[in-house]
Specification:
Length: 174
């Protein structure tokens, strides 16, 4: 079994046992569970769980006759088809969320009459506060700040102070 192929199958999302079973079936062709266990070094009792998962992905099928069940790997091109399906589903979700955002923003903005308390910490907090000043039209902010010398981003503080001139920003330092 090629270690490179095994690792790439795991990157795709197969578990350790699923990747070993799938590679065994690709290399050997149709096989019984015992043959797969011998070739893949996966214990026979766990072969069936891996095969069921691979069947769920459409990567493995089985053929039953009177005495035994043979498992075989589907065409490896099925992996690319599965990725394409996942990409399509992700795009659909993205489009759905994108169309939902304006409605959510309308609800989010409708609750502006209540006072809001928000905490911002560190440099990222300063940047978030700066973004908040840019986005909102609130007339006044009451702020309490304890600025540590290491946390002062001069450009960020300057921009916040410019907003203070345009809109009152009552500042209390501790």
């Amino acid at each position: 079994m090629s270690e490179s192929m095994y690792l790439r199958l795991m990157e795709y999302g197969l578990s350790d046992k699923e990747a070993r079973v799938y590679l065994s079936l690709i290399q050997r062709g149709s096989s019984t569970a015992q043959e797969i266990a011998t070739h893949s070094t996966v214990h026979r009792s766990t072969i069936y769980a891996a095969i069921d998962a691979l069947k769920g992905h459409g990567l493995v099928s089985c053929l039953e006759d009177e005495k035994r069940t043979l498992f075989y790997a589907e065409n490896p091109k099925r992996l690319a088809e599965l990725i394409d399906e996942e990409v399509r589903m992700a795009r659909t979700k993205q489009e759905s969320v994108t169309s939902l955002i304006p409605e959510l923003l309308a609800l989010h903005r409708s609750d502006r009459s209540k006072p809001v308390v928000r905490f911002f910490e560190g440099m990222e907090g300063l940047r978030s506060f700066r973004s908040l000043l840019r986005e909102t039209k609130t007339k006044q902010y009451d702020t309490f700040a304890r600025l540590h010398a290491k946390l002062t981003d001069v450009a960020c503080v300057d921009e916040i102070e410019r907003h203070q001139i345009a809109r009152p920003l009552v500042r209390y330092r501790m």
